């Protein structure tokens, strides 16, 4: 298989990636539901994503295999409020089930290389859809420094 990684504009790729966004969201909904957390249906704030993209605050990493999109990651760039370091916050990262064979690690490494080149100091990620991915990130050098919790009304 021919893997291709690229950084593209969210506004240019959304239509192509929308089925993957919906699939990812559905998997996340199902996993959270299993933990007793119900979340609203998929309804992204596309205007805000577009504005962040145009400002350069949102990077979209795309994974294609033989020219077909099968994974992506959206990452926000911002300045740390406490020290002004350039940091990256993963918004989403997803690889379709039929391609979860190590290519996700390659996508993460591609994104890390790009973020390193942009002088990012720290990258924050959270395992939400599949908690097992945290083990992969740990093996890649990520450190567990917090616990994320949800309170629903």
Kindly describe this structure.
With 153 residues, the protein is of the alpha+beta class. The chain has helices at 10-34, 46-55, 103-117, 133-139, and strands at residues 3-8, 58-65, 68-79, 86-95, 122-124. A five-stranded mixed beta sheet has the order 1-2-3-4-5, sandwiched between helices. The longest helix has 25 residues, at 10-34. The termini are far apart. The mean pLDDT is 94.
SSE order and pairing:
Blueprint: E1 3-8, H1 10-34, H2 46-55, E2 58-65, E3 68-79, E4 86-95, H3 103-117, E5 122-124, H4 133-139
Parallel strand pairs: 4-5
Antiparallel strand pairs: 1-2, 2-3, 3-4
Largest sheet: 5 strands, mixed
What is the topology, as strand order, of the major beta sheet? 1-2-3-4-5
Number of beta strands: 5
Q: What separation lies between the terminal Cα atoms?
A: 46 Å
Helix content: 25-40%
* Residue-averaged pLDDT: 94
Order of helices and strands: EHHEEEHEH
What's the shape? globular
Low-confidence region ranges: none
Which secondary-structure class do the elements indicate?
alpha+beta
Total helical elements: 4
- Strand content of the residues, in percent? 25-35%
Radius of gyration: 15 Å
